[in-house]
Amino acid sequence: MLSKISNRSQAEISMLIVAFIWGTTFVMTKNALADIGPFLFLGIRFITAFILLALISCKNIRQVTPSTLRSGILIGFFLFVGYTFQTVGLQYTSSSNAGFITGLSVVLVPIIYSIINRRLLGGSIIFTVLLAAAGLYLMSVQPGTFHLGRGDLLVLVCALGFALHIISVDRYSHLHNPVAITAVQILFVGVVSLLIGLVFEPFPQSFPASVTSAILVTAVFATTMAFLLQNAMQKYSTPTRFAIILTMEPVFAGMAGYLWGGDILTLRILAGMALILAAMLLSILGKKEEVGNNVTG
């Protein structure tokens, strides 16, 4: 019993660390984009992450099958959409806004599931959506106007991409070696991003410290380490508990944006953030807690 509690605690602390890393790297990425194009940044980041993952888990990556390749590319496509619109959107919005709007992917998941299964949206889902929409309005729409800012709209598309990524991972990842299918996703995002960047973006004549550090930190910690921790630790807890812990990601993003990114957090923006965070938690808590073999000794 103590062993199970200890394993679960370690797993959940690990995911809190992942949430902290993901949240705080919004500021680092935004600063780096002043000196490198978004696609080149993503391409170098994800290819670096793949190389590191291959060095750490080469045996698992060798278990890639044609089926793993097909599923990994499909999942990787949605991951590509998420990261592309997030990174491009960061050029036009604050890191705080980007962190919270990205978190709306959690709210979008049950809506997409309802559409796929051709079911009417339940009252709780409708309330959650309205709550999130109110938060998004307060954060992103200036008083006297009725449209989202350019960057916030791009990041909203990113949230849709990540929601579809969550659903596709749920449907396909358990059929394959987790490290192998993760490697396919990472490599797909890296190669496609790099090709687009080389064709459409100027290659930097030099890599300032802000760019180099952002690539290394996001590749090593926010990609390779985060995915490995998630794959290794999720069996000791439940998806619901992990999801609740990961709602801290936008909170960390907001704190980092305020402390290090120069973001201005007005009462209107803070109220919007609070509503989005509440919507995320309600969306997660509305799901049934999974029990049984998720916690092992």
Task: Please describe the topology of this protein.
Layout: H1 2-32, H2 38-56, H3 58-61, H4 66-89, H5 95-102, H6 105-116, H7 123-140, H8 150-172, H9 178-200, H10 209-233, H11 239-246, H12 248-259, H13 267-285
Helix pairs in contact: 1-5, 1-10, 1-11, 1-12, 2-9, 2-10, 4-8, 4-9, 5-8, 5-12, 6-7, 6-8, 7-13, 9-10
Q: What's this entry about, in short?
A:
The chain is mainly alpha-helical.
What does this structure look like?
- With 297 residues, the chain is an all-alpha fold.
- It has one domain (2-285).
- 76% of the residues lie in helices and 0% in strands.
- It has 13 helices and no strands.
- The chain has helices at 2-32, 38-56, 58-61, 66-89, 95-102, 105-116, 123-140, 150-172, 178-200, 209-233, 239-246, 248-259, 267-285.
- Helix 2 packs across helix 10 (209-233).
- Mean pLDDT is 85; it is low at 288-297.
Overview features:
13 helices, single chain, about 300 residues, mainly alpha, disordered C terminus
Compute the CA-based radius of gyration. Answer: 19 Å
Total strands: the figure is 0
For the sheet with most strands, the description reads: none
Mean pLDDT reading = 85
Strand content: under 5%
The H/E string reads: HHHHHHHHHHHHH
Bulk shape: globular
Number of domains: 1
How many DSSP helices? 13
Uncertain residue ranges: 288-297
Secondary-structure-derived class = mainly alpha
Termini separation: 8 Å
